[in-house]
Amino acid sequence: MDVVDTQTESFNKQLAEFINGSPTPFHAVANMTILLREAGFQSLSESEEWTVKQGEKYFVTRNGSSIIAFVAGSEDLAESGIRMAGAHTDSPCLMVKPQPEMLNNNYFQLGVEVYGGALLNPWFDRDLSLAGRLVYSDVSGQLKQKLINFDEAIAIIPSLAIHLDRTANNDRTINAQTDIPPILMQADKKADFRELLGGRFLAEGEKVLDYELCFYDVQGAATVGLNKEFFAAARLDNLLSCFVATQALINADTSCTSVLVCNDHEEVGSVSSVGADGPFLASVVDRLCNDLCSDAGASNKARVLDGSLLISCDNAHAVHPNFAAKHEVGHTPVLNGGPVIKVNSNQRYATNGVTASLFRQLCAEVDVPVQSFVTRTDLGCGSTIGPVTAAKLGIPTLDVGIPQLAMHSCRELTGTLDPERLSRVLTAFFNRPGRLQVAVSDNS
């Protein structure tokens, strides 16, 4: 393995701070806006007219949980196309139900709903906190919202002792309704959860009306391994890609138009107003075409997208040394082996031979190794925002990701070298001049 240099250590330290401070998609987007503002990006509102100027940098959010940032390039958009990177802000978790209060044997618990395809076993015996968004009315009755974070361990889901379940190590299954409600405290009577939230986070006279809150593991990101070659953290899928792509966009020059899109709701299918299957990105692309194409015309958008490329960044399955047979032979990505091109002929990933070749070329230009993944034919394959976005926009797309272990656990693992490597590749991608096309062969 290559030696971890000072630049990589600094990158991973910033990555750890970002992940630790982003327990929910709302917090992730808020922290991304801070990074972008500090780098000179200007805030836009969807409800207002835009005047996008070449050479300037902008961002716009929707619902506080999805964000699109872009550099308005100096080149004519119809001639240069768009360099686009995508990721998602959400991760599998335990969401608090609307009327969650439970009192069992003098234990106050909250009912939770499993969000996404969470691996549930690792949630037991962890120190859990709670974060998300509150909607409340102030003393005048006006509706407002705010992000909250208990920022300390307030709950736990204890395992059932082996003495009471002798088959636990052989065939125990988890009932998501009855087995995972977290314990918050001991109590003689059922508390009102909204009142608890108001007492903790609101001023007198303000009232909690609703919320979107999830539990998270308070253990922070850490570098582990005898040689410090591993990076462990919650929500690596997919906050790692959000941070990596944000840093790449910040480091991009202003000659080409570059776009970063980070959608919410990928883990549950992307079908929402803020998801990849919604209209958010298409509306921003329309506005860019109107402002950055020199000639007005309905054909401009088609010309722009024909010369564009989307790199969908979502982590990939590294080979697990204890379960190597779960991987297709010859497609066993390893941690610190470089970013992974993800392929699926059934279009669960959007990669094709042309888009994969462009990415391989980019990696070679910045001296970054590249790996490939395809799932075993007898196993199902996950998906990403890549195929959804490709279908919505008609943009050439490929799916890539940093290899990781323990995907969808409440604590995941990747290599220390790969995050900075992918950011370097994406920066080169954003700065690559000319239309992103492969010449058509003459087959006559």
Automatic annotation (TrEMBL):
SUPFAM superfamilies: Aminopeptidase/glucanase lid domain (SSF101821), Zn-dependent exopeptidases (SSF53187). The keyword Flavoprotein does not apply. The keyword Nucleus does not apply. GO terms for molecular function: aminopeptidase activity. Keywords: Aminopeptidase, Hydrolase, Metal-binding, Metalloprotease, Protease, Zinc. Its EC number is 3.4.11.-. Pfam families: Peptidase_M18. It comes from the Bacteria. InterPro entries: Peptidase_M18, Peptidase_M18_dom2. Its cofactor is Zn(2+). Belongs to the peptidase M18 family. PANTHER family: ASPARTYL AMINOPEPTIDASE. This is M18 family aminopeptidase. It comes from SAR92 clade bacterium H455. The lineage of its organism: Bacteria, Pseudomonadati, Pseudomonadota, Gammaproteobacteria, Cellvibrionales.
